[in-house]
Amino acid sequence: MVDASFLSDRGNVFEALLKEYGFTCQQVGPHAFGSPFCQPSKLFIVPSGFADPKYYRVLPALEKNKEKVAGFIENGGIVLAYGAMVDDYEYDWLPMKLKYHMHFKTKSVRLVRQDSPAALLAAPGEKDCDGYFTEHDGETAMELEDGKPVVVYKRHGKGHIIAAALHEYPERGFIEWACSKERNSLKI
Fold first, then answer.
1. Which of 7, 43, 75, 110 is deepest in the core (most CB within 10 A)?
2. Nearest in space to 47 (alpha carbons), one of 187, 165, 127
């Protein structure tokens, strides 16, 4: 079993980072996603640009397996979904209301909910943002100076959804929380 799964058809950009933090990360190709060949994990990462085929070709796999994603979260899994990198996008494969607008810029990001697990994702300050969320039914954990949410969080069943319009890798504290030994690995 592995600690984290990264949905990608273009290599595993998270493997070295998680290894540095003391955890394992498998790349899951879109054809294996949701199949018996997809190993159980605690954290499921969806990359920045997942909705734009010039970056990744994984969106059909997410849409096809939305019930499996919901079950993974319901049973205790954690999903970290990054920005779609298309003008406007609705994350209809997640069990929450979430809409995104792309606007790539380095911006000052402030922490809104210090008690949220999503607050562990990145320290506040100047961050590369690929957009912001225009609607959601979760909690805003981090926002831009003008109040636009860039990190949102929602508890779903026993699990968690963290959506981030930050173009940043997760910090060690977030990975330690998401991949802790107390969590069970689950199949998607």
1. 43
2. 165
Token pair in block for residue 39: 């190993």
The Cα–Cα gap between 79 and 98 comes to 13
Whether 187 is covered by a domain: the verdict is no
Q: Which amino acid is at 156?
A: H
Give yes or no for residue 1 having a pLDDT over 90.
no
- Return d(Cα 35, Cα 15) in angstroms, integer: 21
Query: For residue 37, what pLDDT band results from cuts at 50, 70 and 90?
Result: confident
Cβ atoms of 7 and 46 closer than 8 Å: yes
DSSP 3-state assignment of 167? coil
Domain membership of residue 186 (yes or no) is no
In Å, how far from its chain's centre is CA 99?
Answer: 14
184 belongs to a structural domain: no
Model confidence pLDDT, tens digit, residues 144-186: 999 999 999 999 999 999 999 999 999 999 999 999 999 999 9
Domain range for 64: 4-178
Angle (nearest 5°) at CA 93 between 172 and 101: 75
Token look-up 């993974």 returns: 72
In a domain, 185, yes or no: no
